[in-house]
Design brief:
Layout (H helix, E strand, L loop, with lengths): L1 H15 L9 H8 L5 H16 L3 H17 L3 H17 L3 H12 L6 H15 L5 H15 L6 H17 L3 H9 L11 H17 L3 H8 L4 H4 L5 H18 L2 H12 L2 H4 L2 H17 L4 H11 L8 H11 L6 H12 L10 H23 L2 E3 H8 L3 H13 L6 E3 L4 E3 L6 H32 L3
Length: 465
């Protein structure tokens, strides 16, 4: 009995399997699945419906097509249903009867047992009419109808996203930035598996741009995390990469996060399309130098400072190489001379021609002072407050203020003795540490003494004294 069943299974298997290399297109598959082929009826009735529509009898043409659509849908002839549905909406548009067009779209999409492909093809056909409508109210009504049809349907999520993008463009052109941003945020394209990656990233960047335009910086930051740096490394996405980091620069500029602004410009600078243009990479590299210098002192800033300094292309912009070297070398930088030397060059940058100029100069002065305090702390254990203020080109009060900020951020250790007017950069040692250092010094001294005795003894033996 078991052998017989095994043989029957082997005999049935070839019947269900398809020969290898058989080329069957989707149209043939759909035709084979249909209970009835309505191609002859379509060849007869579609031209008749077009003729009625051209004669101004649109409603009669629609009645004919809707009756035919019911037959093809009941007979599960999907290809014929698609042709009938697309013909119906096309005739409505050609007759410029926009109300009939919207009603037909909704009517066909809501019919019982309507297939996904019919709705998708009909919506795609209707989307081609949007750009051809000049009357804005009618265009908006058609977009709203199509968005209503596609709402909650995964198989037309891409079409809905594109319609939303068109609607947002219209709202933005009318000056309704906040409304446009709210509408676009409703679409979560990062979950759309069928959407092309390039289109998906472009959509997310548009969401970021509108959030920044309406000053919604928190939401812009949340949306920015949907795009990964790895996705932007694709050579075909270089323009998207530049757009993304340009938007990130706008966001970080609002936060005055100079270190991340520097990283964003560095990412743009390393883009192959930027490297091909001397004008572009020079502009980006200048900003990299500016913002790494403006970044607060710290280990990350120091590391980035030295990595940027290794770039050989800095030789082609010597002014910025010299500017960078001031913050690498352990020497005091006098602010009046620094300002006189570099302010003219910095004023050529577009960012210094905006309202942010005064803020940038103030922060640059602060970075110069912080650098100087760090250098002085390395060379001085104690220094008079008046002398320190002279070196920093500041008043005593401003000097104390800068030292206090750096001590609070753990950038430097310092104590100010106001009555004596002395700043101490030496950290007080614990008794155990002092004792350990003394013990170490004594051991070193005894070692030197023993070595000296050994050398004297050797000389005595050599010369037989």
């Amino acid at each position: 009995m078991e052998d017989k069943m095994h043989i029957d299974e082997k005999e049935k298997k070839p019947e269900s399997s398809k020969p290898k290399g058989e080329a069957v297109n989707s149209e043939q598959i759909k035709r084979s699945k249909a209970k009835q082929d309505f191609s002859p009826q379509l060849e007869e009735k579609l031209p008749k419906a077009r003729q009625l529509a051209h004669e101004g009898k649109l409603h009669e043409a629609l009645e004919l097509l809707l009756a035919l659509e019911k037959q093809t849908r009941s007979g599960e002839d999907e290809l014929s249903t698609i042709k009938v549905a697309c013909t119906a909406v096309t005739l409505c548009f050609e007759a410029k009867d926009h109300q009939a067009l919207r009603d037909t779209l909704v009517h066909i999409s809501k019919r019982r047992g309507q297939t996904k492909d019919v709705i998708q093809k009909m919506v795609a056909e209707a989307m081609t009419f949007v750009d051809k409508i000049d009357d804005m109210p009618k265009k908006l009504e058609l977009i709203d109808t199509l968005r209503l049809i596609t709402e909650g349907k995964i198989f037309v999520e891409i079409e809905r996203a594109r319609l939303t993008r068109i609607l947002v463009g219209i709202k933005e052109s009318e000056g309704k930035i906040a409304e446009a941003a709210d509408i676009l945020q409703e679409v979560q394209v990062e979950t759309y598996g069928a959407m092309d990656p390039r289109e998906k990233i472009d959509f997310i960047l548009e969401q970021m741009r509108l959030c920044l335009a309406k000053s919604d910086y928190i939401r812009a930051q949340i949306i920015s995390r949907k795009v990964t740096a790895k996705a932007l490394e694709n050579t075909d996405f270089q323009d998207l990469k530049l757009r993304y980091y340009d938007l990130m620069v706008q966001f970080y500029a609002h936060e005055s996060d100079y270190l991340n602004i520097c990283r964003s410009f560095l990412a743009m600078y390393n883009t192959p399309s930027v490297q091909e243009s001397a004008e572009q990479w020079k502009a980006k590299l200048k900003y990299v130098v500016l913002y790494v210098v403006l970044s607060p002192r710290g280990t990350e800033q120091s590391d980035l400072l030295h990595r940027v300094n290794l770039d050989k292309k800095l030789l082609e912009i010597p002014e910025y190489q010299s500017l960078l070297n001031h913050f690498i070398q352990r020497t005091v930088v006098r602010w009046p001379l620094f300002e006189k030397s570099y302010l003219g060059e910095l004023d050529k940058l577009p960012v210094f021609k905006t309202s942010a100029r005064e803020s940038l100069l103030k922060d640059l002065h602060a970075r110069v002072v912080e650098h100087n305090i760090g250098v002085i702390a390395e060379y001085y254990e104690r220094i008079n407050t008046s002398r320190l203020s002279q070196l920093l080109d500041l008043s005593d009060g401003e000097t104390e203020q800068f030292i206090s900020k750096m001590v609070s951020s753990a950038s430097v250790y310092a104590k100010i003795d106001r009555p004596k007017g002395i700043v101490s950069f030496t950290k007080r040692k614990e008794p155990n540490e002092v004792l350990n250092n003394w013990s170490h010094d004594v051991v070193e001294l005894l070692g030197l003494l023993e070595k000296t005795c050994h050398l004297i003894h050797r000389e005595t033996m050599v010369h037989n004294l």
